[in-house]
Design brief:
Layout lengths: L2 E7 L2 E7 L5 H8 L18 E4 L2 E4 L12 E3 L12 H8 L9 H14 L5 H7 L10 H16 L13 H4 L3
Parallel strand pairs: 1-5
Antiparallel strand pairs: 1-2, 3-4, 3-5
Helix pairs in contact: 2-5, 3-5
Bound molecules: FE2/S2 (inorganic) cluster (2 copies).
Length: 175
């Protein structure tokens, strides 16, 4: 038997009938076609499936879609504002914070949660914030550098809010 859910995903109201056992990550990827959220393990280990639920980073393989009823969800697809990248996306690009890119959406969503709480984290605090996110390419040094650069951009005035043009991000991220 299906349950009816209504939620906001990347600023858009979505309604659907879902089975109670359906995971949020399945709903996002398979029902809504938002495949930027990746599945690396399905067992809550890798963090590739991280999205924001009501502003907090959540591994979407650990949550049922029905539990997201009424929530506001942001996925990696909702971070940029048109062609204007989110400060974290700019920083990952400029600091070479990705190799194959598989872990990148989850890393960015976890980092966004951190920077929303503290735009000036230490490297240890950055590493702590992404400890639930595995990079199989082991590019951690540049990932940390990217998050640090994005934090600097936020302190210089860039908005960390998803979907808001990061006017100051490019300058503050090191160009
Ligand atoms: S797929 Fe969710 S933590 Fe790995
Ligand atoms: S960049 Fe390949 S898994 Fe992280």
């Amino acid at each position: 038997m299906s349950e009816h859910i209504a939620l906001v995903v990347n600023g858009e109201r979505r309604e659907a009938d879902v089975e109670p056992r359906r995971l949020l990550v399945q709903f996002l990827r398979e029902d809504l076609g938002l495949t930027g959220t990746h599945v690396g393990c399905d067992t809550s280990q890798c963090g590739a499936c991280t999205v924001q639920v009501d502003g907090q980073a959540v591994k979407s393989c650990t949550m049922l879609a029905v539990q997201a009823d009424g929530a506001t969800i942001t996925t990696i697809e909702g971070m940029a504002n048109g062609d204007a990248l989110h400060p974290l996306q700019t920083a990952f690009w400029e600091q070479h914070g990705l190799q194959c890119g598989f872990c990148t959406p989850g890393m960015i969503m976890a980092a966004a949660d951190l920077l929303a709480r503290d735009p000036d984290p230490t490297d240890d605090e950055i590493r702590h914030a992404i400890q639930g996110n595995i990079c199989r390419c082991t590019g951690y040094q540049n990932i940390v550098a990217a998050i640090r650069a994005a934090g600097a951009a936020v302190q210089a005035g860039a908005s960390i809010t998803p979907g808001v043009a990061p006017a100051a991000a490019t300058v503050a991220a090191g160009r």
